[in-house]
Model the fold of this input.
Amino acid sequence: MTSPIGLIFANVSTGYKAGGFNDGCLTTSGGVGCILTPETLFYQPENLTAYEAGVKLRLSNAIRLNGAVFHYDYSGLQLNQVVTTPVPGNRTSNAAKAKVDGIELEANITPYAGGAFSVGVNYLDARFADFIPDVTFPNSTNPLSFAGKQLDHAPKWTANLGYTHTIALANDAEIELGVRSLLSSSYAITNLGTLSQFKQPGFSKTDLNITYNAPEKRYYVQLFLKNLENELTVSQAQGGRLANVQFEQPRTYGVRAGFKF
Done:
C-alpha cells in the first residue's frame, strides 16, 4: 500500500541451502579408511521461513525514515567446525532449529546541498531454539543443550553513523568526502569441538574516504582508510587440539580506481 509520503509493506518468504557431504566415506562401503556413519558423512538442507513488515516514509525532500520488524525460522541450520575425529578436517552438520527476531530503524537526512547524513540502529535476538550438539555429553540421559544460546556473529545491538559531503567542481566533476562508523555490541562464536562459545567484546570501526568523480562519472579515484581505530576483532575461533583464531582486517588504507566503458 502506498501514499504520497511513503510505503507500508509485509511479506513472507521461504528459502533453503542445499545439503551435501563431508570428506570421507561410509563404513559400509568397505574401502580403506572408510569409517564414517551416514549421520557424520552427510548433512541435510537448511530451510528458512522469513516474515517481515515495515514502513518507508518520506517526511520531506530532506528526511526519509525506514523501519522494519522481522522473524526468521530456521530448521536444519548448517554449522561448520574443525574436528580431529573420526577424520581430521572441516565438518558441516545440522542444528535442529534456530530463531531470529529483529528490528531495523534507519534515517537519511540531507539538510543542505552536498551534505547527507545517515543513521541506523538494529536490534537482533538470534538464538538456537532446539540444538543438542552431542547426545552423549555429559551423559545420554541429560545431554548439554544449546537452546537459547546466541547464534554466531549476531550482536544484540548495532548502529551505524555516516556523513558524505559532495563538492561540485567547475568542470562538472566532484569530490566526495565520506566517513562512516559501525558500533557493535558483543557477539558469540561457537566451537562445537569443545561444546563452548567464545565472545567477541563490543567494538567500533570507522572508515574514511575521499573520492574524485570525473565529469559524467566516467571514472573515479578514491583514497580510503578502513578501521581507523585499528580494532582487532575475531572472525573464527577453535579450541582443542586444532586450536586457532582468525581475525578480521586491522587498519588498512589504499587507493581504488574505476571507469565506465
Q: What stands out?
A: The mean pLDDT is 90.
